[in-house]
Amino acid sequence: MYKNNKIKKTSCDLIIKIMFLLLISCNKNLLAENLYVGVASNFLEPINIIKEDFKKETGHNLIIINGSSGSLYTQIMNGGPIDIFLSAEQKLPKKLEINKKSVMGTRFTYAKGELKLWSLNKALFKKQFPEILSSNLVKYIGIGNPLFVPYGYASKEALEKIGLFKTLSDKLILGKNINQVFLMGYSRNLDLAFVAKSNIISNKNNKKGKIWNIPQNLYSPINQDGIMLLSGEKKKGAFKFLKFLVSDNVKKRIRDFGYIVE
């Protein structure tokens, strides 16, 4: 009799634990929010991984709106439904503060990017930077549009510092975002491409190409800032996501994609 009672008690305890876990799960789902996050193109692959981690931990779902920082800024200024903006630079999030489109005190640098010159054209592999840019073998050079793409602006800065921007203007192909520039290079429609270091690391076939370092003193630091917008202030999940982005595990993930994180 005692043994049977013990078995019954154990079964009851197990059922109670299962019901408790189900209750927590249901509450988590009921409280889950959809968060609209505008993400600069260079950060698309990292955010897709971070998105899954965040959902597992909190239940909240990130809906990613991807594009150049400039195009996302325009959407925000025109009332686009974006709760959090992860820019590829600092200037635009600062302008959102000035224009009172954001929650004061929420802007922070989530990553620092690096500019690289990259090519799949083997005929160029033995050449050095910056001489390679003036090679007769180079017909097309890709950069992000400097008006909208922070990495494109950095590329223009570098070319101006070495006195080649005007000289090479006829060879420059402007991409609407940095991912497009990388894809044009990957499809061999470009001889050279100014891309983010993260583009190269994210692509599994990057070993086929050649990478040239761009000296840091040739372009302004690419500090990528994130900021909460006014619509995000109404969502508890938005505050949780900003806190999640600065956690040690997420910082490690971001570093693994070639960014500098302090």
Task: Walk me through what this model shows.
This protein has 262 residues and is of the alpha/beta class. It has 2 domains: 32-112 and 224-256, D-Maltodextrin-Binding Protein, domain 2, CATH 3.40.190.10; 115-213, D-Maltodextrin-Binding Protein, domain 2 (3-Layer(aba) Sandwich). 41% of the residues lie in helices and 20% in strands. It has helices spanning 2-31, 44-58, 69-77, 91-98, 150-161, 178-186, 197-202, 236-245, 248-256, and strands at 34-40, 61-67, 84-86, 108-113, 115-119, 141-144, 172-175, 192-196, 210-213, 222-228. The strands form 2 sheets. A 5-stranded mixed sheet has the order 2-1-3-10-4. The chain has a 5-stranded mixed sheet with strand order 7-6-8-5-9, with helices on both faces. 37% of the residues are buried.
Write a concise keyword list for the protein shown above.
262 residues, alpha/beta, D-Maltodextrin-Binding Protein, domain 2, 5-stranded mixed beta sheet
Question: How confident is the prediction overall: mean pLDDT?
Answer: 90
How many helices? The count is 9
The shape, in one word, is elongated
Distance between the termini: 64 Å
How many β-strand stretches?
A: 10
Gyration radius over CA: 23 Å
